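TL;DR need structure tokens for one chain.
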Amino acid sequence: MTKKPLITLLASLSLCQAAFALDGSLSFDQKGDLAAFAASREIPAPVPGAAAPAAETPGLCVFNGTGGAALDGAAFKAAIRASDVVYVGESHDQANDHLAQLEALKALNKARGGSVVVGFEMLNLTLQPVLDNYASGKLTEAEFLRQADWQKEWGFDFNLYKPIFDFIREKKLTALALNLPKKIVSKIARAGLAGLTPAEQAYLPANLQVTTNERYIAYIRESFDGQMSDMFKFENYLAAMSAWNETMGARLADFLNANPGFAGLTVAGSGHIIYNAGIPASLKARTPGARGLSFFMQGADACPAALPEADSGLADYVWYVRHTGRAGRAKTVPLILP
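>> reply
TL;DR here they are.
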């Protein structure tokens, strides 16, 4: 059957834009992400303050997500140094978000002396051998992109991620493919966890838990009620999102548990990090002693003088950067398409 996307999505601060075809497979365009983000809200009017950084640098406009205290450079490095896992969300097509991830990675690498693993949402777990070969220098960039089928698997410009991969290769760090194969996410959304075959269930982590975080469930329901209620049962939709997050968290947790002394950094959409309810919750349940630190990347035209009330609790810290092409967009809601 010919794949035919059902809808075009807005991709704001996380998961990429995608469309599930009528045969249950999932195809990407280059504007969004795997569970996509549609129903979005506008950020509060920027509070007058320092000019937002240009695209060449992420800048450091960071506030504590609960108390609202600003984080300076020294405190930023100290917070990362005290952490075992650092989560830096992204809007996939925003260069400053990826530069922020790189800055966090540099700080973590310096603190841990190279004992760092970087987990990527962009690659599903079956591509781990390809990622290993690229990270170790056995593959050229062109060979990696071809063998990983980057354009089909992810779709966003590789140059946005290239500085992170270059740093991994230069410093001989470990890279980890985190994602659940798209066909599994799609099938769970349509048929639930019970609808998977034994072979499909083998992709899922042990002790998979469907999220009970009320704020995150409300966040997911925004998209379901607006777009998905005539396509899926909500419990299946929620299970698909949970399986997606649980797989990525478990992949990183398994590595950290098997490699004492290592620290981890995730390169993933903000919808997998928001409220510490996705990947952070999955990993915390599996490595209870790990100290986590999350950053929600928020687009703004200027660095606010204080944490906007609407952004309180998005993550441990909210990091404001200039976003291009979608001025005024903020967090959005993940949705899965049939």
